[in-house]
């Protein structure tokens, strides 16, 4: 069964304290691995797409990486405005539907 | 990217009634997706809506409970029928814009509470 698992479920960081979020996937034929940010009461906001092992993408304090089994979202020197739920999702070949992980709820304190 | 408008943004409904959620996109797309996000949980795909054909439902979701319409390439509706409190969730519409990458974009969601 195709599955995406995220850890930790929740993460509390002090402002400036860097950390990483993990996304493990077991899917038959990965086409793309996606990261989204979701704020309370809103729909997911697209962050990154990764297609092949070794690929990295950066945006401000966020960097996403991909291996053959997992992806990491690295957060460098986070700020309180980075507080949100971060969702990882996989899409398979011949489909555009997404298989989501359960998310990591990040809280960054001043 | 794509701009997606969902209506209503939230509603409180009586059990046994039905609610129709609308999704309007600012560009033509082949497929539209409907997801459910139960309280404190991640997103689960309900169905894929193609223009001009029947929607394709995921395991655990049936057409009688979640009928979908797709009259054209920019619009779709999802109806939640004969509602019970267990249907209280956020319902989200999503699209993958044509001619671009594979990123999916989401509407703001419809927060449904069934009492």
Structural features, described:
The complex is a heterodimer of chains A (110) and B (115). Chain A has 110 residues and is mostly beta strands. Chain A has strands spanning 3-7, 10-14, 19-26, 30-38, 45-50, 56-59, 62-66, 70-75, 84-92, 98-100, 104-109. Chain A is globular. Chain B has 115 residues and is an all-beta fold. In chain B, 0% of the residues lie in helices and 50% in strands. In chain B, strand 7 and strand 8 (75-80) form a beta hairpin. The radius of gyration of chain B is 13 Å and the shape is globular. Chain B starts with a strand and ends with a strand. The model of chain B has no long low-confidence stretch (mean pLDDT 93). The A-B interface holds A 31-32, 34, 36, 41-46, 49, 87, 89, 91, 96-103 and B 1, 4, 31, 33, 41-45, 48, 92, 94, 96, 101-109, 111.
CA-atom Rg of chain A in angstroms: 13 Å
Please report the number of helical segments of chain A: 0
Beta strand count of chain B: 11
Which overall shape of chain A is indicated by the principal axes computed on the Cα atoms? Answer: globular
Unreliable stretches of chain B (pLDDT < 50, length at least 5) are: none
- Main sheet overview of chain A: 6 strands, mixed
Q: TL;DR?
A:
Chain A is mostly beta strands.
Helix and strand arrangement:
The complex is a heterodimer of chains A (110) and B (115).
Chain A: E1 3-7, E2 10-14, E3 19-26, E4 30-38, E5 45-50, E6 56-59, E7 62-66, E8 70-75, E9 84-92, E10 98-100, E11 104-109
Parallel strand pairs in A: 2-11
Antiparallel strand pairs in A: 1-3, 3-8, 4-5, 4-9, 6-7, 7-8, 9-10, 9-11
Chain B: E1 4-7, E2 10-13, E3 19-25, E4 31-37, E5 43-50, E6 56-57, E7 68-72, E8 75-80, E9 89-95, E10 105-106, E11 110-114
Parallel strand pairs in B: 2-11
Antiparallel strand pairs in B: 1-3, 3-8, 4-5, 4-9, 5-6, 7-8, 9-10, 9-11
């Amino acid at each position: 069964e195709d599955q995406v698992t995220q850890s930790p479920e929740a993460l509390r960081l002090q402002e400036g304290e860097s950390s990483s979020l993990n996304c493990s996937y077991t899917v038959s034929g990965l086409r793309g691995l996606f990261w989204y940010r979701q704020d309370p009461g809103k729909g997911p906001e697209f962050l990154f797409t990764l297609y092949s092992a070794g690929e990295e993408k950066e945006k401000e304090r966020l960097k996403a990486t991909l291996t053959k089994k997992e992806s990491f979202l690295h957060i460098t020197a986070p700020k309180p405005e980075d507080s949100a739920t971060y969702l990882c999702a996989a899409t398979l070949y011949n489909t555009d539907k997404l298989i989501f992980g359960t998310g990591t709820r990040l809280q960054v304190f001043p | 990217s794509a701009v997606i408008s969902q209506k209503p943004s939230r509603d409180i409904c009586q059990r046994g009634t039905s609610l129709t959620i609308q999704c309007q996109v600012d560009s033509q797309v082949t497929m539209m997706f409907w997801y459910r996000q139960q309280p404190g949980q991640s997103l689960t795909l309900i169905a894929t809506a193609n223009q001009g054909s029947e929607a394709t439902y995921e395991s655990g979701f049936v057409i009688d409970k979640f009928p979908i319409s797709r009259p054209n390439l920019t619009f779709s509706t999802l109806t939640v029928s004969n509602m019970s409190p267990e249907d209280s969730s956020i319902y989200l519409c999503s699209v993958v814009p044509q001619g671009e990458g594979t990123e999916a974009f989401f509407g703001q969601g419809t927060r449904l509470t069934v009492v």
